[in-house]
Amino acid sequence: MAKSQRGQVVIAPDKFKGSLTAAQVAAHVAAGLRRVHPDLPVVAMPVADGGDGTVDAAVASGFARLQTSVTGPTGEPVTASYAVRGDTAVIELAEASGLRRLPGGEPAPLTASSHGTGELIDAAVRGGATRVVLGLGGSACTDGGAGMAAALGVRLLDADGGPLPPGGAALRSLVSIDTGDLAERLDGVTVVVASDVDSPLLGPDGAAAVFGPQKGASPGQVRTLEQGLARLETIARRDLGAFAAQRPGAGAAGGVGFGAMVFLNATVRPGISYLLDLLGFAEQVAGARLVITGEGSLDRQSLRGKAPVGVARAAAKAAVPAVAVAGRRALTGEQLRKARLQSAYALTDIEPDPERCMTEAGPLLERLAEEIGRTWLGSSGGPETTPVGGAA
Description:
By secondary structure, the chain is α/β, with parallel strands linked by helices.
């Protein structure tokens, strides 16, 4: 990443899901700004909140990308990336166990496993990592982290003393847990879960009920998964003395948050704020003129710890104004102010056709960035006006 300059503009967006990666968003915004201010010092700093794009954001900030073959969510081999800098590894569950890794996009809610995520952790630790940052989001599985634990040597056993098959449904047959040499494997290793999900493991707000349908689970399958997770919690409490089911984040990624707490002794941190610290956002924003953040849909979900609000709050601490770009905007001016965003510019402000907003997002973003450059940087590089709520 470029060295910080006084008066620079920091472009720190999340992805526009289904349209542009965070790095592509940043590149298009930079291109639009430079049409208005050709010599403007700009730093592109793609960000993520722990879900898809977390490894890419780390790589853009100077981490090295490593790749390895791991087990995909339904057992097929996949090539997954993780990021390393010094003794810190950034691992993204979606890389190994995500919905986008399902063959043909076909859901497997009862049998999908987090095994590949455990293999990524094992690879990073074997490579010398002593701090593992685990981003949770976009998972295909609801297995409570059982697959992840199994990949690290934990034995989850049925009544005959045999290992359980993969997936959340099989957890209903769990009788005992043997952690084997897990403590030795992870000796000296700190695991931090970065997630914007604060759901518990069980119940109407838990992993199966809230997120199971997103992974293709029918109402009956949601009940099956809930039973499996409840059984895992009961046996983990009995065999491991683990009382983590109600902790915020236990329900993240189909209960992998719970598995990380129970098996890896992980702490849970809000995804975007932790990753901004890790990626050095404070150093880049110091003395900046403006921060531009964004995501595909700026809505009420954004207010629950999503990347743009986290970026805006971090910018506010440095007394730097922040504006957002988005595919669509569904927040009022008052909501934007409370989120510390001075303004929000949406593709739908200049193109009412949602399909074109998806297929032509890059050029449209550049047009919005030109408007931001004129409005916020003027001819002298300082804000001319401070609108709230939209581009027009």
